Amino acid sequence: MSLSIRSLAATAVAAVALVGAATLPATADGSHRHGHHNGHHGHGQRGGVEISEVQYNSRGIDSRFNRSLNGEWFTVRNDGRFPVQLRNHTVRDGRGHTYRFGWLRLRGGQEVTVHTGYGRDSGSRVYQDSPRHLYSNVRGSLTLRDDEGRRLDRCAWNRWDGGHKSC
């Protein structure tokens, strides 16, 4: 290959790489944070969707009453600027229980709380309709995945967190 053809080819490859890098969004709003937040979980790249907190031990004695069941919950937050559709996103605990979101759109800055027990779903609260407590009071974790199975976030806790974990 002649020197001028190699130079032309190298220039073309560099131009394509530059244009590609400029047009690929890292997130919906460019606010992706690398690494781990509070040392406990990583953040995903789709609009800044994250597990922001977990109430893994409801107050009082665990019972099968709905009030006790709904005292156990986690919150998913869109900390980006743009809306994110959560349909078919999943949150799985360390024991293998999986919650799958239905049709739910989170605006930038909006959050949804997912309760263990029964209730009527709204834009800010949804219910898993479980007849029993799901999360260990000793240690556990939740993993958020998008509709294609990519891990977006993880939050872990242990008994020294006092029943509540800000992720």
Automatic annotation (TrEMBL):
Composition-biased stretches (Basic residues): 33-44
Entries under SUPFAM superfamilies matching the protein: Lamin A/C globular tail domain
Gene3D superfamilies in the record: Lamin Tail domain
Annotated signal sequence range: 1-28
Record carries keyword Signal: yes
Domain LTD positions: 32-159
Key words of the record: Signal
Pfam family, one: LTD
Disordered: region residues: 28-48
Protein name, entry field: Lamin tail domain-containing protein
Organism: Streptomyces meridianus
